[in-house]
Amino acid sequence: MVLKLKRGTWLLWAVALTLGLGVVAWEMSRTPEEGTTTVQSPSVNRHFDFTADLVQSITITKSGPPPTSVKLYRQAKASDGESVWLTDNPGPVAVSGPAVDFLLSVVLGSQNDRDFAVPTAELTDYGLNPAGTELTIQLVNGKTYRLQLGNADFAGNSLYALVNPVENADIPAESQQVSLVPRSLEELTRRSPADWQQVDLESDAEN
């Protein structure tokens, strides 16, 4: 009887140990996946999947009247490692690096969780046919992205926008994906070259 009891006890210990090791292995395999999901989920919901350090230039074009265009472009890095941003007015003039960084943070931080489809024929109702303002973003690798801004939404907190709009004169798209982007872009895109040199970041943050 004693021998049978010992064998049974050892069997129970073996089963418990096997189950314990299985649980530990499962937890270890599951944790990295959850960590990856937590880190990557914000980028999945963003309108643009690149980072600010990859941006070479931003051109802000307004239809007017009168039509205006401001190009902010990265020249090089200063001795302290910070990027040097310029604009032509008409020659190269330095602009506020923090101001450009703020603009990029607003553009690249916008989320696509409230995008919705709109028939192309109805884009005028959203101020997007034609759009009053367009941002053209060029990366260091030559790729170009576009963001067109329209009217404010009903709540007044966001602007209707088109991200990389589909334009084909021969075969017009039946609908477009309209996005909501931060209303602060309205004020930021109104700046003249002189405004970018005399930027007030506190005023922008309040808007």
Structure description:
It contains five helices and nine strands. The protein has 207 residues and is α+β, with helices and mostly antiparallel strands. The chain has a nine-stranded antiparallel β-sheet with strand order 4-3-2-1-6-7-8-9-5. A hairpin with a 3-residue loop joins strand 3 and strand 4. The longest helix is centred in the first third of the chain and has 43 residues, at 2-44. The N and C termini lie far apart (83 Å). Mean pLDDT is 79; it is low at 1-5, 29-42 and 201-207.
Topology of this protein?
Blueprint: H1 2-44, E1 55-62, E2 68-77, E3 83-88, E4 92-94, H2 97-109, E5 116-119, E6 133-139, E7 144-152, E8 158-163, E9 175-182, H3 184-188, H4 193-197, H5 201-206
Antiparallel strand pairs: 1-2, 1-6, 2-3, 3-4, 5-9, 6-7, 7-8, 8-9
Name the features.
single chain, alpha+beta, 29% strand, disordered C terminus, globular, nine-stranded antiparallel sheet, 207 residues
Task: Please provide the count of β strands.
Answer: 9
* Average pLDDT for all residues: 79
Helices, by number, come to 5
Rg estimate, integer Å: 27 Å
Give me the secondary-structure category.
alpha+beta
Portion of residues within helices:
25-40%
Shape: globular
